[in-house]
Amino acid sequence: MSDTAVDHHPMWEKLGIDLPAHDMLLGAIPQLYQDAYLTQEGRPQGMAYFDFVVSEIHGLRIKELVDHKAAGGIVVGTFCLYVPEELIRAVGGLNVGLCAGAEWAYDEAECYVPRNTCALIKAAMGFKLGKVCPYAESADLVIGETTCDGKKKTWELLGEMVPVYVTELPQMKRPADRTLWRGEIERLVEKLEEVSGRKLEAAALKTATREVNDKRRALQRLNACRAAHPAPISGRDALLAVQVAFYDDVPRFTQMVNKIADELEQRVADGVGVVPPEAPRVLITGTPMSIPNWKIHTIVEKAGAVVVGEEQCTGSRYYEKLVDESPETLDGMLDAIADKYLDINCACFTPNTARTYDVLRLARDLHADGVIHQSLQFCATYQTEATSVDRAVKQAGYPVLRLDTDYSDEDVGQLSTRVEAFVEMLR
Ligand code: SF4
Ligand code: SF4
Known about the structure:
Layout: H1 9-15, H2 19-38, H3 48-55, H4 60-70, E1 74-78, H5 85-90, E2 93-97, H6 106-109, H7 119-129, H8 134-138, E3 141-145, H9 149-158, E4 164-167, H10 175-196, H11 202-224, H12 235-245, H13 250-270, E5 281-286, H14 295-302, E6 306-311, H15 316-319, H16 330-342, H17 353-365, E7 370-376, H18 380-395, E8 400-405, H19 412-426
The structure holds iron/sulfur cluster (2 copies).
One iron/sulfur cluster binds near residues 80, 81, 147, 148 and 348.
C-alpha cells in the first residue's frame, strides 16, 4: 500500500455510500483507536503496519477491491469461519469479513430483526441499511451459513438487499453430517464458479490453500510467542492482527505478521515484555470480536492484566488448524477443505465438547492464571454453552469470570469494576 493521503470520497460515492453518515462513523475511529491502542507502551514496532491499516480502514484496501473488480475479479462477503476462503481465492475472488463490531443504525436494523438480537447481527444489518460499509457495498456475493437461528433468518432479509447464497452447515459432526457438508462444499464451488465466471482448477486451489495456510502459520507464530513470561505483545495488538486477517491482502498480511513474529521471538529470547512479569495472564473465550470491538481486551489490560490468548473466531479458531496441502486432485483438496472447516468448534454444534478441551489446552499452554468467558447478549448458543465450559474451567482449577455484553459503552463502568476485582483475585 502507498501511504500518500488520498481523498476517497469519490470512490465511496460511486459505491453508494451515505457520505455524511460514513464521515461520522470514520470520525469516531481515531479517538477509539487512540484510547485502546496508542496509549499502550512498548508495542512491537511491526504494529505500525496495523496502525496504518486502521487509519486507512475504508480507504486503500477498498481501492484495492475496486481495482480488483475492474480487472475482472470478484469480491465475496462472509460472516463466518465456516466459509472456505481458499475456494473464493481459487476462482479469482477476494474474501472480506463483513461482521461489524460497532453499533450503527440500530433503529433501522430493529425494523428487520428483533431488539433482542445479538450485537453482531444487528450491527451487520445496521451497516448495510445505513450504507456505511464500503466492504459490504463492494461485495458481488454474500455467503451466509446456517449457524445460529439469528443469522439464518437474517440471510432471508439481507437477500432482499444483496445477492446472498446460504450454505447449510450441519449442527452435528457425525459421518452423515460430514457427507452433507462435503456436498455443500461442492454446491458452494458451483455458485462461486457461476458468479466469477471461472472454473475451479486444482492448481489454483493448491496455490490458494497454501497462501491461506501461510497466513494461518504466521498468526500461529505470533500467538505462540504469547506463552512467554513476560508476554511480548498485548492481547489488544494480537486481537487486531486477527481482526485485520479477515479482509487484508493475504500475502502482504502474511509477510507483515511474520515480521512481527520475528520481532516477538527476539523479544522472548531477550526476556522483553509489554507488561511486568507478575501481570496476571488471562485467556478469553466466547463469541467473536469484530473490528473495532476492542472493549473487553481494553478493560482487562487497563486493569493491569494481559490477555495471552483468545479461544474465539477472532482468535485460535481462526488460525490453529490448517487445510491438508498434500492432496493432488481437486476431489482430494475439497475433501481436505471439508474436513478442516467441519473441525471448527463453534457453539452452534451439539455436542461441542471439543471447544472445552481447546479452552483448557490453551489455558495450560499459554500459562493463563484465569479465564474470561465473554458472550454477546442474546447469543443463545454461547451463553448457554458458557455453563459447561465455565464448569470445566473451574474444575481444572482456573478462576473464571463470565461477562455478557454488547457493543455499547453503557456497561463499561460495571464491567471494569468486575474485571478489576477478578484481576486482583488473580494476583
Ligand atoms: S462463532 Fe460460530 S457462527 Fe460465529 S463466526 Fe464463529 S463459527 Fe461462525
Ligand atoms: S454471536 Fe451468537 S447469536 Fe450472534 S451471530 Fe454469533 S452465534 Fe449467532
